[in-house]
Amino acid sequence: MGALLNVFRIAELRARLGYTIMLLAVYRLGVFISTPGVNRSAMNAYMKEQAEAGGLVNLFNMFSGGALDQMSIFALGIMPYVSSSIIMQLLAVVVPSLERLQKEGAGGRQKINQYTRYGTIVLSIIQGVGISRYLATIGRTATSKTGAIDQIVVPNDDIWFTVMTVITLTAGTAFIMWLGERITEGGIGNGISLLIFAGIVARIPPAGAALLNSIDTDKDQLAMAKVAFVLVFMVLVIGAVVYIERGMRRIPVQYAKRMAGRQMFAGQATYFPMKVNASGVIPPIFASALLSFPSTLSNFLPFLKGVQAALQSSAWVQNGLFVVLIVFFAFFYTSLTFRPDDVADNIKKQGGYIPGIRPGKQTADYIERVLNRLTFGGGLYLAAICVIPSVMASEFGVPFHFGGTGLLIVVGVALDTVQQIEQHLISRNYEGFAGPRGPRIRGRLRVAA
């Protein structure tokens, strides 16, 4: 409690927290401003049906913090920026000019950030056109389990609606991107990650209320036992995520003696940290999007209905494919963003070596071997967290909806934010949250670059 009170004793930290909370409140207010020309009640009815059917729409709705339910001006959310950041990371691996920019320091990173913003606008325009045309079909051609949707989402479908929707959604995404950058510069934590965090956390109370309402205490005598079991299991899952996200493999690195002028400096022993989950939440996002394509596009591509039926025929088939895709994307993304050859080369240039391993290629092979083992374990961990809700609901009959990508983002952003607050406290001779003898909080890879 004393460490928590120290946060409010520092004027700068207090101002940063207030600034962050204020901008997050602005973001949440914007979620309830609807896009012009959209029937809000019809959109709500359609999204309730989509929540039962699953699909790519639900994934976007989660990242937008429920803005898609309202067809808000923030309906695209921050996903165009996240997608643009991921694309830039992948391009930096294969495009030499972007790779050189990454190695130029602050100036190069600023240029890449500028390209990322341009990419965000382009993706927002493309997605805005797609959403506007998709909205125009709802109520006219879309069907649900109960038959045709009663209300039309877009009563007046014309070219001006498309233009207005594209402009509105693109401007909303640009504003969210600006909010995130302002939080990063003047607030606490990574702004983009905190915006996603706020959207996911805002949906937890309604989800909890729906969970309680789904359990009828009059008809189910074991209702309270189910609720208690779910609550205890939630705590255990959160604890496991925190433990693994903080976990890392420390590879020892020894530096030889070196001369600086006339002085001889003794060799230093340090370590190179490698996180258990180096790929972050990217593998579950990619895997979820790929599995959601058949159900999302089956109305437009009839041959995908067979794929959708095969996936829905058995929960074990869908979960098994989900696990395989997560592990695959964990290896794929890690191989693109982490290069053992570059790490080994940097260690060699600085006069260091791993004890018992020759510098150069053997060091790179050793790091790659360790990385593959960590990535496999991290992939299985991600898959386990993501399939928990489905397994609990289908096999044990427990309505458990707490887990997956949303949980990973919430815990990861919380750890990263606490780490930054702790750094402010330590820099001013205050004890951190862990106390004078406890371990320092280690953050994780951020959601967006």
CATH architecture of the domain at 1-218: Orthogonal Bundle
* Number of DSSP strand runs: 7
How many DSSP H or I helices?
Answer: 18
What is the rounded Rg? 24 Å
Order of secondary-structure elements: HHHHHHHHEEHHHHEEEEHHHHEHH
Q: Globular, elongated, flat, extended or rod-shaped: what is the shape?
A: globular
- In what range is the share of β-strand residues? 5-15%
In CATH, the homologous superfamily of the domain at 1-218 goes by the name SecY subunit domain
Low-pLDDT residue spans: 142-149, 443-449
First and last CA, distance: 33 Å
CATH class wording of the domain at 1-218: Mainly Alpha
Helix content: 55-70%
CATH topology type of the domain at 1-218: Preprotein translocase SecY subunit
Q: Strand pairing plus helix content: what structural class?
A: mainly alpha
Average pLDDT value? 78
- As laid out across the biggest beta sheet, the strand order is 6-3-7
Largest sheet: 3 strands, antiparallel
